[in-house]
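Need tokens for this chain, all 205 residues.
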Amino acid sequence: MKLYHHPISGHAHRAQLALSLLGLPHELIHVDLANRAHKAPEFIAMNPFGQIPVLDDDGTVVPDSGAILVYLAERYDADGKWIPRDAAGRARVQAWLSAAAGPIAYGVSAARLIHVVSARFNPDEVIPRAHALLTVVERELQQRPFLIGDQPSFADVAAYSYIANAPEGNVDLTDYPALRSWLARIEALPGFVPFAQSPVGLRAA
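Here are the structure tokens for all 205 residues:
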């Protein structure tokens, strides 16, 4: 199993974390984003959108981090631990996969990218958007230890990476104690792999 990734990508870390939590052996294939390897014809053949991550499971090619989580759960999570098998549980996880592609991507992730790759987002827009999202997450985690219940799921995996590194985008997590406790619970899970940190934003030396 191969995962095409880059260490600064929270989308790629999301997929890597899922693989590791499931205990699935895999090879990390570094994609040179700086030299636009993700736009090369051979990569476009795997993902027409030219984005990482991409999973190659012995010839089954799955692009997109959300799709990878769904694939891994369907293929390797027979007990429904990470995505519940009942309709309501699946829908709750899907809501957070959608949040990962929406308010998380356009809030905490966008704020971080300003500092990590000099992305041209307006901090006066994306930082308030990040805090609006974190307020929702904090409220949910005041009610339960994980996003959809008492046990971790791929809802937590989808949300973790960019929220954990939100300080790199000058998004302070101090006012979110339940969220910070949740981050610690994720980081204590067997098989957890950390998301690489960059010395920017609130993490600047």
